[in-house]
Amino acid sequence: MKLPACWSCKKQFIYGKLLLFWGGRTICPLCEKTNYLTPESRKKGAWYTPILIILMVIGLNMFDIGFSGIILYGLIFLLIGLSLSPFTFKFTDENEPLF
Ligand SMILES: [Zn+2]
């Protein structure tokens, strides 16, 4: 898996910065160009969450883990989802509409 790179200077973004990336755009620290998420990667991200939730529900039905177990399980899933999400990002120079 590779981290996404700036569309302009091709420099890879820092993982920690992508992890805190929520707004759909980021500014390259090197060339200071604005990078927007491509519609494809935004769609991918939209699919990602329900799949994660479905997996979580399936997991919860398989084990009788109690309330604190459910919270812990949810947190672990959230962390895994968050830590993998930067790899699904792709950037472009235009803020394209989703549909
Ligand atoms: Zn750049």
Description:
By secondary structure, the protein is mainly α. The chain has one domain (15-92). The protein contains three helices and three strands. Strands 1-2-3 form a three-stranded antiparallel β-sheet. A hairpin with a 6-residue loop joins β1 (25-27) and β2 (34-37). α2 (39-62) packs antiparallel against α3 (66-84). It is elongated. The mean pLDDT is 83. Residues 6, 8-9, 11, 28, 30-31, 33 line the site of zinc ion. Keywords: Membrane, Transmembrane, Transmembrane helix. It comes from Alkalihalophilus marmarensis DSM 21297. This is Cxxc_20_cxxc protein. The chain crosses the membrane at residues 45-63, 70-89.
Q: How does the SSE layout of this entry go?
A:
Elements: H1 15-19, E1 25-27, E2 34-37, H2 39-62, H3 66-84, E3 91-92
Antiparallel strand pairs: 1-2, 2-3
The structure holds zinc ion.
Residues 6, 8-9, 11, 28, 30-31, 33 line the site of zinc ion.
Largest sheet: 3 strands, antiparallel
Number of strands: 3
**Shape assignment:** elongated
Number of helices: 3
Give the topology string: H per helix, E per strand.
Answer: HEEHHE
Helical fraction equals 40-55%
Q: What would you call the structural class?
A: mainly alpha
Mean pLDDT: 83
Strand order of the largest sheet: 1-2-3
For the record, the count of structural domains works out to: 1
Which percent band covers the strand fraction? 5-15%
Terminal CA distance = 27 Å
